[in-house]
Amino acid sequence: MTLLDPALRADFPILLRTVRGGRPLVYLDTAATSQKPVSVLDAEREFYEQRNAAVHRGAHFLAEQATDAFESARSIIAGFVGARAQELVFTRNATESLNLVTHAFSSATAKHAHGAPLPDGAERFVLRPGDELVVTEMEHHANLVPWQELCDMTGAVLRWIGLTDDGRLDLTDLDAVITERTRAVSFVHQSNILGTINPVAPIVARARAVGALVVLDACQSVPHMPVDVHELGVDLVAFSGHKMLGPTGVGCLWGRSEVLEAMPPFNTGGSMIGVVTMQRSTFADPPQRFEAGSPNVAQAVGLAAAVQYLEKLGMPAVAAHEHALTEYALAALAEAPGVRIIGPTTAEQRGGAISFAVEGLHPHDVGQVLDDEGVAVRVGHHCAWPTCRRYGVPATTRASLGLYNQPADLDALLVGIRRAQQFFGVA
Known about the structure:
Mean pLDDT: 97
CATH topology of the largest domain: Aspartate Aminotransferase, domain 2
Distance between the termini: 30 Å
Shape: globular
Number of helices: 13
CATH architecture of the largest domain: 3-Layer(aba) Sandwich
Helix content: 25-40%
Strand order of the largest sheet: 4-10-9-8-7-5-6
Number of strands: 17
Order of helices and strands: EEEHHEHEHEHEHEHEEHEEHHEEHEEHEH
Low-confidence stretches: none
């Protein structure tokens, strides 16, 4: 088993605390939010203590330092995913990143309807009734609900790629789902509920064949394996800081330069303008076009520190560590009586978000007993309600792995599941 040094757990202060009457914390909820190393906490505090000022505006020394810190963070984070700084937009979170994309379609469509000016190339964002948008049946609500709303606003039709019984995308009828009427295809890289790592290449190839824009939700892939956005061949990628050891309140949208340049702005106000008159305004080039108002500077600086922590470990090493833990967990759960894994049961093309059901028990009861044992997991539909319906479960218990986990954490999970079965008399 190829694992990272367990001593790195000491870099995460919260993992050293106890819960529920002195029990050691076993944190298995990284898919919801990751814990933060000291270097990230220090980076945010150091910014506020030494360089806090408004960026891109002031001419004084602190403002220059703050701006340098902010733009340096952009470069560091962009480089982490194989991008250039000017291709990376800071948002509040990945949900906002995805809403930024759907807003580009609704804004362009509304402006086109009455002849308002659009950026060059924005015609590709203009929707007409009957145009189609494609997602998958395993999407997080953040990559489903915005597209539903866009359809309601424009008359476009939402279609989706279905799922196989073993938790994979059913690509057998891909050509029938992505058609000449498809304008955009948006799908998750790694599922937050099933753990499935989806095949990007065939979906991109089919989307390219019909001229559709391709959007990727990479919230669960960028923190856990090497990702190069240009190699993926997609147009736009969303990911979130707090799921990759970084702070809350910061996310990213990467986009190909020509795509970002064609997109109308999302929020408007200060910092994103070119020229403003009482009659009309022009807008800055990306990424500033999409960063109206005072940005989340300290959070961006903290996320850059998280990236540097991950780079020091090496993303291939992180991926190997989590793959080994996933194999261990899947094998152990497969042997546990009364436990059904929801999603792929092997670690091939699979990440460490492992949802399961325990026969005779509601997921919330399982989660409560685990919590009493100090084991933190997630229970519910994980913002993927249609996926739960596809597999006939109201909710699941989900254990999700991070680079700070070790096999002992999974042993504790199995002990907790057994105690839940015993407590409720279903053992």
